[in-house]
Design brief:
Oligomer: heterodimer
CATH topology of the largest domain in chain B: Heat Shock Protein 90
Number of helices of chain A: 5
Number of domains of chain A: 1
Radius of gyration of chain B: 71 Å
Radius of gyration of chain A: 13 Å
Helix content of chain B: 40-55%
Largest sheet of chain B: 7 strands, mixed
Strand content of chain B: 15-25%
CATH topology of chain A: Rossmann fold
Number of domains of chain B: 8
Number of strands of chain B: 38
Strand content of chain A: 15-25%
CATH superfamily of the largest domain in chain B: Histidine kinase-like ATPase, C-terminal domain
CATH architecture of the largest domain in chain B: 2-Layer Sandwich
Number of strands of chain A: 5
Largest sheet of chain A: 5 strands, parallel
Structural class of chain B: alpha+beta
Order of helices and strands of chain A: EHEHEHEHEH
Shape of chain A: globular
Structural class of chain A: alpha/beta
Chain lengths: 130, 1145
């Protein structure tokens, strides 16, 4: 149990984050939840999650800034998956430039998200069993 | 060559002498190697060399003479020395022996052997010249000289030395004697013999140079003695003694001393003569005056230096002088040594001896030419002055003028003298000149007075005068200078300045912006005085209109040395602002740093105001235009609604029992209403054409059908007027096209009705043919001819203008019409890419030809039969169950009455929401207004089509709208409506549409009633499973995602209910504050949850809000959308709460 994979979920909508947190727990991950970019950075610095799932549009500090901070300041290599919405195509491109690994367009199916999470973690060398 | 010759040759070449031969002409025939080398020639060159070429120039003549001599005298052998021309840089002396060459008793040339004697020559020369120089020097020396060797024996002594020391032997005999023997013997000749001996011995002992020691001899003579010991290298070789006689000098000094104080300091010539008149003494003054040295003139007669005229005056003077009288200051001409004479003032006094006998005279002469010179210099000054100088009497008459004056005025001296100056002064300047002259004669100096003179050639010259008056004579002494050129330059500068001051605001500031200069215009504009602004910072003009950034950029620009241009609003002292077009030019000092700024500005306040006015006017006009457009659109819409009622009820009324009069009245009402309606439609079309807002359709159509439809509509009118009305279409004309048939109909309706309107006899004919044909397009020619009243040629080009139908009131009265038709025809034709031509003859008729390109439709076969079936199918009894969705009660009543006449059952819904509640599976067709409160026709349609049971969702919906635009029709169709009727609708069209859409469904329903029942049963099963009906939410997806786990479902539902309340609060607030970014962020956030709960009705609205707030478009619709969401959320809330209850149970 101590070796659970830590997944940081950054989502400002409580409802959605509740659901995703629930799903992450169900999949056997340890979800860490942040509702804005500021909290996200604190958690990243303190807990060093194995995966980050983040919305692009966030209060205070945007998802792009979070990615930039992780990659350029903290120089951490963990995979990052971002959520985007219609009309945010350019932001997605920017996010990839900054070092994001994957993205999903909102609204998305939590099922699909869980599949993607699993795959990302596998390719980055992590897995549930570790 | 025999051995002798060989030896000879070797000898010749081997010796270090020149061996050469020359011919009789003097050219070399042979020179040996040594010679060639020494003179720097090459062997081959020598034959071209003449013997004189190697002889130094000054010897040539004598060389030629020498050889000539030798030849003439037949001397065999001669010797001659000469210097050569330096050929290789050094001059050589040659000594040559020359032998004449005789062959066969004939003289053929010379042979010579020569030797370089340069060294010998130099030594000999040096020796002889040194000896000569020394000897002559010593012999001629005005001094006693003696030399002795190191042992004291005399080696040289001159005669003077012998004389000096009274030696009995001659100089020659003294050589070889010991000088020391002489010293003591001759010492008695000196004034101090003991010292003399002692000193000589000391000098011999010390062997040091001693110069000019004074030795006094008893006979009064004085000598300077010099002693020089002689050395060769370090070896002492003897002494040199020299005694210089300086007696004369010492005596001269004494004499000078005495005279100096009296005579020599005088610049006058002071001299004395003896009684014979010969000069005895001569001072420096005399020397410089007459240029004679003392020794030249002493002893000469006085007449040498004076020119004495042989006249009475001279004789009497001589008498007086000789009589011993003192004569002073008489004038006498003196003559200098160079022959120049000078006026002298002479004083003569007799010199007498002790017995009072005159032995001579002293003469003192002073040069008085200096005074005269001064006078003539003034004259010259007067003549040569470049300034104009004149003397005038107290009345202003010229007494004297200088050449410069004459030259400038071009009048001769004669013309000027004794003439008053006013004759020559510019008439405008005469009076002020007299005023100045008056002031002048009162004793005031005149400085810098300027007036104009007119020259002889009538040119005008500006003169600047300085003048003074001689108080004794009253004469005016005036000097003037020609300042015409300066004046013109100044005038020019003044003109520039004036011009500049008229328009340009000029200021100069230092590098800190402190004002150092401003022009008048600056003061005028800024309302500051010059004193107030000089020294102030230019900021005092800052109006505050421009931001800091503006000035920062300006300073950056000018501080970098670049010229800045811009428009600036400045503030005057009184607070008034003005606009200036400013150019600031930085001026750099010698270090390249900005030293000052020159700001030139033009007042553009008026321009700015004009610009602003123009802008305002433009905005106003645009606004007015926009208001006009909106007004027209709204008005036509507003008018249509009541018109709908008028026409509709008129139709209904006509179908009741009426007498003939009533029918006639109602006909008139109906015709008028329809006319009014068409007018409104025309206005609307026009406003759209004006605004370029006509959107063209691209639908397949059949041209023949379209045209027949138009003819069908117009036929009745033409019939009524008894006119022929014919349509002919050329065989083979392509008829199926893709385009906008509605617009074509509009064009031809207007064109044909226009023709019918203006034709009383004959007819209106239309001929259609293909003009140009390509694979994809055909240009169709539509030719319309009437036999009407026609249009006068001069009015022809006006008929397409608004409200212009030949502007004859008579015509208008007879035929009616609104005058918009042709304008619309033209506008639409052009919009369709076509062209229009018109030809008309008064009282004969009018011809129009329209050529319109149309896109061919080759694929689709247009089913003409279908359409005409509907058109011609008239059946009174429709028998449909209709749901009428209409908010306007008048329209409700009209439509209801009309539908009931057709045996229809009508259910009335007042808005979309009611419609959704009321709609049933057994409705055959829905007639739905688009614009409605609460829920509009579009939204209602979407709801019916997407949210309701399949039976309901498939009911045909016909839109009704007063918005007579195709855009609306297209939108309606896209949203799932089946057809579209414009209000007010033509009865026939409405009937056809109802028939078209209602009957098929009626048939299906009547034939398959059980299907509906089955569906209803299924629905009941579904409902019972879910316990409650859910109109707003769909939890299928939610259940899947939460794996049906109650706890998380409860948590998520509770969260959503809270979140959505917050969402609504935030977006309402954001929309109110027009903070669209907040609206967007919030909507973006909530969107996934809305889809999570399957709130299908709300999802498009949320998407809409998201999209509009992000792109900042159609923001005005957002509050409505939020309101709709709020309304839907009420339903969602109810359903979610009941879901919660179930979950928690």
């Amino acid at each position: 149990m101590k070796n659970k994979i830590k997944v940081l979920l950054v989502e400002d909508d409580t409802t959605l984050s509740l659901l995703l947190k629930f799903r992450l727990q169900k999949e056997g991950y340890l979800p860490l939840v942040a509702h804005d970019g500021k909290q996200a950075i604190e958690i990243i610095e303190n807990d060093q999650p194995d995966l980050i799932l983040s919305d692009i549009m966030l209060p205070f500090i945007s998802g792009l800034e979070v990615i930039s901070h992780v990659r350029n300041e903290l120089k951490l290599p963990m995979p990052i998956l971002i959520f985007s919405a219609a009309g945010q195509e350019e932001m997605v491109l920017k996010a990839f430039d900054l070092g994001a690994n994957d993205f999903m367009a909102k609204p998305f199916s939590p099922n699909e998200l869980m599949i993607r999470v699993k795959r990302i973690l596998q390719t980055s060398g992590q897995s549930v069993l570790n | 060559m025999n051995s002798y010759q060989v030896n000879y040759k070797a000898l010749v070449e081997g010796v270090n002498d020149y061996v050469y031969c020359i011919d009789l002409h003097g050219f070399f025939t042979f020179a040996n190697g040594f010679m060639l080398e020494a003179l720097g020639y090459k062997a081959g060159d020598m034959s071209k060399v003449h013997y004189t070429d190697i002889i130094r120039e000054d010897f040539r003549e004598s060389a030629i003479e020498f050889y000539t001599d030798q030849l003439h005298k037949g001397i065999d052998t001669t010797y001659f020395e000469f210097a050569t021309i330096p050929i290789n840089g050094k001059e050589q002396w040659i000594g040559q022996r020359v032998v004449v060459l005789i062959e066969d008793n004939e003289l053929v040339g010379f042979r010579a052997i020569a030797r370089d004697i340069t060294k010998d020559k130099e030594v000999a020369l040096a020796h002889s010249s040194t000896t000569q120089t020394l000897t002559s020097l010593l012999e001629n020396l005005d001094a006693g000289v003696m030399m002795e060797d190191e042992n004291g024996y005399i080696t040289y002594i001159n005669e003077q030395f012998c004389k000096l020391f009274h030696l009995r032997n001659s100089a020659k005999k003294m050589i070889g004697k010991r000088y020391a023997d002489l010293v003591e013997k001759s010492s008695y000749l000196t004034t101090e013999p003991a010292y003399f001996i002692e000193r000589v011995y000391q000098l011999l002992e010390d062997k040091e140079v001693s110069k000019d020691e004074r030795v006094d001899f008893v006979d009064g003579k004085v000598f300077h003695r010099s002693y020089v010991p002689m050395f060769e290298g370090r070896n002492f070789t003897g002494y040199f003694w020299k005694y210089n006689d300086i007696t004369a000098e010492i005596q001269a000094n004494l004499k000078q001393n005495r005279l100096a104080s009296i005579v020599e300091s005088s610049i006058d010539a002071i001299l004395s003569v003896d009684f014979e008149g010969n000069i005895v003494t001569w001072n420096d003054g005399a020397k410089s005056m007459f240029q004679y040295e003392s020794k030249e003139i002493v002893g000469q007669p006085l007449m040498t230096i004076f020119f004495v005229e042989n006249n009475q005056r001279s004789k009497s003077l001589s008498k007086l002088i000789l009589a011993g009288k003192k004569i002073s200051s008489f004038e006498q001409i003196g003559v200098k040594k160079d022959g120049h004479s000078m006026p002298l003032s002479i004083s003569v006094s007799p010199i007498k001896n002790e017995i009072d006998v005159i032995i001579g005279f002293s003469v003192v002469a002073s040069d008085i030419s200096l005074g005269e010179k001064l006078k003539s210099q003034q004259d010259r000054f007067f003549d040569l002055s470049l300034d104009l100088v004149c003397i005038a009497d107290f009345e202003g008459n010229f007494k004297r003028v200088n050449p410069a004056f004459i030259k400038l005025l071009q009048y001769s001296e004669v013309e000027l003298l004794n003439q008053p100056f006013s004759e020559f002064v510019h008439p405008d300047d005469v009076s002020k000149s007299y005023t100045e002259m008056k002031r002048l004669s009162e004793g005031n100096g005149l400085i810098g007075f300027e007036n104009r003179y007119i020259c002889k050639d009538r040119s005008v010259k500006w003169l600047r005068w300085n003048a003074n008056v001689d108080p004794e004579t009253g004469d005016l002494y005036c000097v003037a200078r020609d300042i015409t050129r300066i004046k013109s330059v100044l005038d020019e500068v003044d003109n520039y300045k004036y011009a500049l001051d008229q328009s340009t605001i000029l200021a100069i500031t230092d590098s800190n912006g402190i004002i150092t200069f401003v022009n008048d215009k600056f003061c005028e504009m800024s309302k500051y005085t010059r004193e107030e602004v000089i020294g102030a910072n230019h900021r005092i003009l800052n109006s505050g209109h421009h931001g800091i950034e503006f000035f920062r950029e300006m300073w950056e620009c000018i501080n970098s040395g670049k010229v800045w241009k811009g428009e600036v609003m400045n503030k005057a002292k009184d607070g008034e602002t003005y606009w200036v077009d400013t150019t600031i030019t930085p001026f750099l000092d010698e270090k390249g740093e900005v030293a000052q700024f020159i700001a030139t500005r033009y007042n553009i306040t008026q321009r700015k105001k004009d610009e602003e006015d123009l802008l305002n006017a433009k905005l106003y006009a645009e606004n007015a235009l926009k208001i006009k457009d909106e007004f027209i659109a709204n008005m036509s819409h507003e008018i249509r609604t009541p018109m709908n009622a008028v026409i509709g009820f008129t139709d209904l009324l006509m179908e009741t029992e009426l007498n003939e009069t009533q029918v006639n009245y109602l006909d008139t009402v109906k015709n008028s209403s329809e006319l009014l309606l068409s007018l409104i439609n025309d206005i609307l079309d026009l406003s759209k054409l004006d605004a370029g807002r006509v959107v063209l359709e691209n639908i397949p159509f059949n041209l023949e059908h379209t045209l027949k439809k138009v003819f069908h509509l117009m036929e009745w009118t033409a019939d009524e007027k008894g006119l022929e009305f014919e349509l002919s279409i050329d065989d083979g004309t392509h008829l199926n096209f893709i385009g906008d048939p509605t617009r074509l109909e509009q064009i031809f309706l207007n064109l044909l009705s226009n023709g019918i309107k203006f034709t009383d006899e004959g007819g209106v004919y239309m001929k259609v043919s293909s003009k140009y044909d390509t694979e994809d397009f055909t240009s169709i020619s539509f030719y319309v001819k009437d036999t009407g009243i026609g249009v006068p040629a001069e009015k022809l080009d006006q008929i397409f203008d608004l409200f212009n139908q030949g502007d004859q009131k008579e015509i208008k009265r007879i035929v009616g019409g609104n005058g918009l038709g042709l304008t619309i025809v033209k506008g639409l034709t052009e919009r369709l890419g076509g062209s229009l031509k018109v030809h008309s003859e008064l009282n004969k008729g009018t011809e129009f030809e329209l050529i319109i390109p149309l896109k061919k439709d080759q694929k689709i076969f247009y089913n003409q039969e279908d359409e005409s079936q509907f058109l011609n199918h008239r059946r009174e009894n429709l028998g449909l169950k209709v749901l009428l969705v209409e908010d306007n009660h008048v329209n409700q009543l009209l439509a209801t009455t009309r539908l009931k006449r057709w045996n229809c059952e009508v259910d009335i819904a007042n808005n979309g929401k009611e419609a959704i509640e009321m709609i049933r599976e057994d409705h055959h067709v829905v007639l739905m207004d688009i614009q409605m409160p609460i829920m509009n026709g579009y939204d209602t349609t979407v709801h019916i089509r997407t949210k309701m049971s399949p039976e309901i969702a498939t009911i045909p919906i016909i839109a009704m709208s007063a918005h007579a635009s195709n855009g609306d029709a297209i939108k309606a169709k896209n949203l799932g409506m089946n057809d579209y009727v414009f209000k007010p609708f033509k009865v026939q069209i409405l009937k056809e549409k109802l028939q078209k859409w209602g009957w098929p469904r009626k048939e299906i329903l009547e034939n398959k009633p059980q299907v509906i029942n089955l569906n209803e049963l299924d629905g009941e099963v579904e409902t019972s499973k879910d316990v409650i009906s859910r109109d707003f939410i769909d939890l299928t997806f939610f259940r899947e995602e939460t794996f049906g786990e109650k706890e998380i479902m409860i948590a998520i539902i509770e969260s959503f209910l809270t979140e959505f309340d917050i969402y609504l609060k935030n977006v309402s607030e954001g929309a109110k504050m027009e903070n669209w970014d907040t609206v967007h962020a919030e909507t973006h956030r909530i969107k996934p949850s809305v889809s999570l709960f399957g709130v299908q009705e709300m999802l498009p609205m949320i998407t809409d809000i998201d999209d509009k707030s992000r792109n900042k478009r159609e923001l005005i619709t957002i509050p409505d959308l939020i309101q709709n969401c709020e309304r839907i959320f009420e339903g969602v809330k109810v359903e979610l709460n009941s879901e919660l209850e179930i979950l928690q149970a």
